[in-house]
Known about the structure:
There is one protein chain. Strands 5-4-3-2-1-9 form a six-stranded parallel beta sheet. The protein has a single domain (3-213), classed as Aldolase class I (TIM Barrel, Alpha-Beta Barrel), CATH 3.20.20. The protein is built from eleven helices and nine strands. It is globular. Helix 3 runs parallel beside helix 4 (72-81). It is of the alpha/beta class.
Amino acid sequence: xxxxxxxxxxxxxxxxxxxxxxxxxxxxxxxxxxxxxxxxxxxxxxxxxxxxxxxxxxxxxxxxxxxxxxxxxxxxxxxxxxxxxxxxxxxxxxxxxxxxxxxxxxxxxxxxxxxxxxxxxxxxxxxxxxxxxxxxxxxxxxxxxxxxxxxxxxxxxxxxxxxxxxxxxxxxxxxxxxxxxxxxxxxxxxxxxxxxxxxxxxxxxxxxxxxxxx
Length: 214
């Protein structure tokens, strides 16, 4: 699985916080119904690892990633559960090195040029830009393109349907992470029809932005 190639195609990664593992498979099915076979489950709840395992077992066609990975122990738990990629909020060298040993792609979080250079020194050039809007948004990412033409970003944080297209129009943005289509309120209410609808709408925005970018 080439994660970069996949992200270039989908251009969207739903970032989900799951409080109850039983919701995991219905949530994933609602994304598949919309045409998106990818999800990032954040390790912010006790149910997260079980949710990753449930989706991996029931829906092997789903590309499941673990987010908010902050330790080597979490890395092992997520990969054992079936996570095919990892996303970290920051630049933790131990986590990055361990992920490389496991041959599992990781997108570490960066926010400054210095952090980008540190990531490159560890042979990582596909990076999470977080928190995207709070850190300067589209203008900031555009400014990073000139000194770092070999880096691709997955911006996350404050991205929604109103600004998704602006981010995806940048040549150094491979895809965007977002939680609006998999909001915890929708999941807890079992409103998976809304998840499908919002995801379908987001994919339409992403497809249009992709045509502009190319």
